[in-house]
Model the fold of this input.
Amino acid sequence: NFEVFLEPNYTNTVDRETTGKINLNFGTNVHYRFTRTFGLSMGVNINKISYQNSLETNKSIDNLKFVTIPFFVKLYPLKKINFFLGGSYNFYQGGFNQIDKNAKKVRILDGVFVNSMGVFTGIEYIIKKRISSSISYKMQKRSYRNYQSETQNFYGVYLGLNFKILNPEKAKNRFNGISN
Done:
């Protein structure tokens, strides 16, 4: 199955005094079921992370963008509910910092943030045949320059709205009766 999704999220840093911001992610996943109850999936998505520093001397806002490649296992114990667990590799694409909401955006220098790994788990509820919703918890971590004020460690709650756009099994069944 192929699906596209929209995924609002609330993400924050793990080890700094910050307040998370709400972002909107989007992407696509490919699912393959080996049995009725077990499958593997992978995809690609744009993962945006924003947070505001909460220090007395620093109230700036960081906005980061990653291209994420998730690889995960899906379990289908019930007809309308499935669970997933997996990992991801996050390619850092860039980011900017603002002193406040009305200030000019300043590009974050190269090397401050780098690529990182992550893990996630969640549950998905199938609303209709081609529409489902999900909630997941994701962590992203990289031990890199731990002494700098910026962090590579994030966690967040993600809500997903998934749209199945292609099911190859159904297409294959439709064309089984056609011969040349």
Observations:
- Strands lie at 2-13, 18-33, 38-53, 61-75, 81-98, 106-107, 116-128, 131-141, 154-166.
- Helices lie at 168-174.
- DSSP finds one helix and nine strands in the chain.
- The longest helix spans residues 168-174.
